[in-house]
Design brief:
Layout (H helix, E strand, L loop, with lengths): L2 H6 L6 H11 L9 H23 L3 H54 L28 H13 L1 E3 L7 E3 L16 H8 L5 E5 L4 E12 L2 E12 L2 E12 L9 E4 L2
Antiparallel strand pairs: 1-2, 3-4, 4-5, 5-6, 6-7
Helix pairs in contact: 2-3, 3-4
């Protein structure tokens, strides 16, 4: 019987042959459930069944030997393919497991890369500037000015028999009677009416004093004037800075005016 006739034979087989072929090519364990393994097992099973059927219908010894050789070769080929599939499946499973175990370690590496020296951190936010005062009483007197003011007053102290405490101060400016006399904050209002560069002079009991309008400038949003108080006693002298500003004295004020800061 030729090879073409063999291919055209119907797949008829007996139950014992079916069991034998199935037993020979079955897989065990988890390999039986792999899709590729089942595909090859199906192919191997069909091949074995076809070969068994051919052996059943072969009558003469020569045909039976030919079919037996053909069957052995097919079975050997299927076994090799099956072993290859099993080996590849196991290796792929091992590699897949290794990849899954390595994945958690990749996350920290990514996190570390975010802190790498090449990545510049955003600059810190600039500190908020202090809010400018809305009223004159919100302006502060610097500490060094307080020290200079105390030294100036001490330099101008003089004995006075008819003064409270027996002490008078030559450093306090004296003014002739004018439109500002007797008003609250008259000294600041008077100095505010002078032009820049004006020098007012007075004579104390032991010292001569001057008050000079040095310049006008903005301080914390207010229009202000810088002043200088100076006392001269013989060859000695001392001075202190002064500041007057225009605006509302406090939240209770309704009219803007010049106010003495120091």
């Amino acid at each position: 019987m030729g090879e073409r006739a063999v291919r055209d034979l119907p797949l008829q087989f007996s139950a014992p042959a079916h069991r034998d072929a199935h037993h020979r090519f079955r897989l065990t364990g988890r390999d039986r459930h792999h899709p590729n393994q089942e595909l090859f097992m199906r192919h191997a099973f069909r091949t074995a069944v076809a070969v068994t059927a051919l052996l059943g219908i072969a009558h003469d010894a020569q045909a039976q030997g030919f079919f037996k050789r053909l069957a052995d070769r097919a079975i050997e080929e299927v076994e090799q393919q099956t072993q290859t599939v099993i080996r590849d499946t196991i290796e792929n499973g091992i590699r897949g497991g290794d990849r899954k175990e390595a994945e958690p370690d990749e996350a920290p590496l990514q996190a570390q890369s975010d802190d790498s020296p090449g990545v510049e951190a955003p600059p810190p936010a600039a500190p908020a500037l202090p809010k400018a005062p809305a009223y004159i009483d919100g302006l502060n007197v610097p500490a060094d000015v307080e020290v200079k003011k105390a030294a100036y007053n001490k330099f101008g102290e003089v004995n006075c028999s008819d003064c409270e405490g027996g002490i008078d101060f030559d450093g306090r400016p004296q003014f002739p009677y004018d439109q500002f006399s007797g008003q609250y904050g008259e000294r600041a209002k008077r100095a505010g009416s002078w032009s820049v560069g004006h020098v007012h002079r007075w004579q104390g009991k032991a010292s001569t004093g001057t008050l000079t309008v040095l310049r006008e400038e903005e301080v914390d949003g207010f229009r202000c004037r810088r002043l200088e108080y100076r006392l001269m006693k013989g060859s000695a002298s001392t001075s202190r800075p002064g500041l007057i500003c225009w605006g509302l004295a406090n939240r209770s004020s309704e009219i803007e005016n010049w106010h003495e800061i120091y």
